[in-house]
Design a protein that fits this description.
Blueprint (H helix, E strand, L loop, with lengths): L1 E2 L2 E2 L10 H16 L3 H18 L2 H6 L2 H9 L5 H4 L10
Helix pairs in contact: 1-2, 1-4
Length: 92
């Protein structure tokens, strides 16, 4: 979980998982793009709108625009260097 400026992991072993860390770093950049607090507001609003739409927690979560960007690019360890800022807007 990314809570600016920290990345929180369930276990110490996950600190070395490059994919998970990259996913969370993408969230940190999203938080910076929106000046932190608006990110959390939009994240929750998008989640609840998706929950209403899909009536399923997992589908609601996976369809949050910020999660779509992070999941789509988590395996690309160069995404944050080469990817465009505000990439999540393409997921709307």
């Amino acid at each position: 979980m990314a809570l600016f400026p920290f990345i929180l992991v369930k276990s110490a072993g996950l600190k070395n998982d490059a994919i998970i860390i990259n996913h969370e770093k993408i969230h940190l950049r999203q938080q910076l793009e929106l000046l932190i607090l608006p990110f959390y507001i939009l994240y929750l609003l998008n989640y609840f709108a998706n929950l209403f739409k899909y009536r399923n927690h997992h589908l609601a979560y996976r369809n949050i625009i910020f999660e779509k960007e992070a999941y789509n690019h988590e395996h690309n360890l160069h995404y944050l260097k080469k990817g465009s800022w505000y990439g999540w807007l393409k997921k709307i």
